User: Fold this.
Amino acid sequence: MSTANTPISNSTVFAPSSNCSERKSHGHVVQFYSEDEALINGLSSFIGTALNAGDAAIVIATKAHRDALIQSLSVHGIDQSKGLKQGRLIMLDAQETLSKITDDDSWPDAVRFTEIVGGLVDRARAAREGVNSSVVAFGEMVSLLWAEGKSDAAIHLEQLWNELAKRRSFSLRCAYPITGFGRGEHSEPFLKICAEHSNIIPSESYTALNTEPERLRNISILQQKALALDTETAERREVQRSLQRRESELADILENAIEGVQQVGPDQTVLWANKALLSLLGYSAHEYMGHSLSEFHVRQDVFEAFWAKLMRREDIYDFPAELLCKDGSIKQVVIHSNGLWESDRFIHTRRFVRDVTEHKRLEESLLTAEKQAAMGRVAAIIAHEINNPLEIVTNVFYLLREHPSLDEDARELARVANDEIARVRHIAKQTLAFCRDSASPVLVSLRLVLDAVLEAFRHQAQKSGIVVVRRISTDGLVLAFPVEVRQILINLVANAIQAMPSGGTLRVSLRQVAERMIPGKRPGIRATITDTGVGIPVEHRDKIFQPFFSTKEEKGTGLGLWVSQGIVQKFGGTIRFRSKKSRNGFVTSFAVFIPTDATSVSVA
Amino acid sequence: MRRVFPLHNSRTSAAVGTETSQGAKGVSILCIDDEKSGVEVRKRLLESAGYRVTTARSGQEGVQQLRSEPFDLVLLDYWMPSFNGVATARELRSIDPAVPIMILSGLSQLPDETIGVVDRWILKDEGPEYLLAAISSLLKSRH
Assistant:
């Protein structure tokens, strides 16, 4: 850079060249440079001129810069060793000196600075050749602080230099690589650094220009660049803000979408899932994300089929699957999904998961309802067709039992036939009533039904010496099919009475309860029928709800409890029993729970 | 009330079984059913309990019978061709609003329209004792 060595007058309206000397002005100059060469050229001129004039010089620089300076001085015929010997040239390592003047937090300490650097100036001053000679100093400790990102410390150190210059006479030069100010946020500290200096030497792209027209052109170019850059920066900021806004809006939409959304990586790991999906399955983000997607699929063959489709780059629509929830329940879902591919590399899949559990349940219950309605219609026809001839035969045998024209033997046969026909009638009644012909459930009072059933059995109970105790604290309104409710209570009361042929106590109670055994503690009505009869032997306890299981020999059909359980389960209720030994025999209790929330009734 | 609790039909009180199955001498019953053997056997059953029974083989015929003479009770089948039990009961009511009407059905449950038109309904599968007790009970409640 030979042009950099061309001296330019300080009085010029333009910026000084990098080798301009402030040694007479006692100013504080800062040089910005792009290449070390530009720094060394300027510095060599600054120090060389001083040494030639008999001035003293202090150089606090990095080793590389010191070495380069020594070499440059010798190229220009200046013997630095003589200066060193005379004490007119003091060269110190910037890092080492910096560590001496800073505290533990790398903050320049005023006392230490004055003592050390002030001492250096005093030493140099004493060594200069004549009283008219001056002291020049170059320091780049500030540059080291700046490079470490300690801009405040750098500015503070500049101020300490300025303070020192007020008390001691010397010319000072600092230097910073311009590349250290390449970011927007550097603008403010850059201005502060400039403010601490009396003169500024721009970097060589400018100082290398020697003529006025060149420099004016360059200023214009720089102004235009600065303006364009400002505009572009502002525009970019706006674009960036808008992108960030859009991104957060999209993230918000996905996060708060009603449908479940998730991303799954090529190793089948769940990368992300939105709130809807987590809440559908009941997992926390931590329990779901980072896990393998297959863990949450109930059927592995279905999951594998899904993944295979995806790997074939198919777009997947309405793919049915079952997902496992945290509480162990299963959600029926349909999945829309496709993969994001970059050339042949699978990046991730987007899965949209829709819960169709309720939809499926409704579909199934509708199907069941249709079937039940059809069965009901068939049952009604069968009931009619069977009951008509059955009534006639029943009536005939009823009349023949006591018919005067028959002898006792024939009448006895008629009685047997009468009893057997009664049995057939009972079986038909039990099975056909199960399929009722009513279209929809109505509000039924269990109290009224129970009263009617008890009334129906009053005579039979009296005959067997059974005391009936009623404990009824509710009307027990349930949404149900009357004939079915009656069927259950008749079966339980009849069983209880038949279990006490030699008398006992029949307790019936009706209470409003919250069923603890059903998740969600659904409210409902519990009817309990308790007898003090023969009890249920242990070996029969797991069979009593089986069809055609009866202990009543010819009297029972073995259908009563089976039918009752079927009806209760259809209501979403439960039927339980227990039979335990007591002082006077056994206490057997059947408890029927029917939920009172309307949704529990499977409408048929 | 009856619509809400169709089960709590007054017929249930007839199921007590304590009522006498012996009808009072001279009590007349009009028995309507399209099925010949059914109505004949039922007539014999009711007569065995002491009732005086007149039969009719259709709703229209039953209506004619009631027009020509009064009855203490009408027992009619629900499921009859063309003019069913309920329609017949309505017609009978217009002739004699006070006559007790009992409907008999082979169906396990009767449609809501039946309720309020007839005094009691009973199912054919309940058996003869039940039928006689129910008739006796209904007659008693009217006297």
Observations:
- The longest strand of chain B covers residues 28-32.
- Confidence is low (pLDDT under 50) at residues 1-22 of chain B.
